[in-house]
Amino acid sequence: MKNEVQVLQKRIDELVALLPQVNFSNSESVIIWLEAFAKVNEHPELKIPTEKILATFHKHGHRKKPTDLFIMKHSNHEELGKWVIGEAIAMLEGSSWNQYHAGGRIRCGLFLPYVHMWRRKKERMHYA
């Protein structure tokens, strides 16, 4: 188990080191980083620099967005991307609407379906 934590911590550290290279004006770039982070951040023994991550997102204008089913169903690809990013921020802040949230963690099982929904909307835009 300790070896697993070390591997995950190394990946977290690598991803945090990559944060300055993320193009925060491009939702796809941000969501790709968040997706990678979500896949490795849930182990309770990991040391997550939540404040540093949130400060970086806030510096670039990303904030929690209100949960609104209208946005999820009727928004364009870019608006939905901003909403998905906001949901990840809410999870990191511990202010997510979900009663089972773990503050300081992006819940992979909750977040990845949002990413898939965002990708499907992007694909539909290309075929419209």
Tell me, what's the shape? globular
Helix content: 55-70%
C-alpha end-to-end distance: 48 Å
Catalogue the unreliable spans: none
**What's the Cα radius of gyration?**
15 Å
Nearest-integer average pLDDT: 86
* Strand composition percent: under 5%
Tell how many strands the DSSP assignment holds.
Answer: 0
Number of domains: 1
Query: What string, H for helix and E for strand, traces the elements in order?
Result: HHHHHH
What brief labels describe this structure?
single chain, 128 residues, 6 helices
Structure description:
By secondary structure, the protein is mainly alpha-helical. It has one domain (about 1-125). It is built from six helices and no strands. About 25% of the residues are buried.
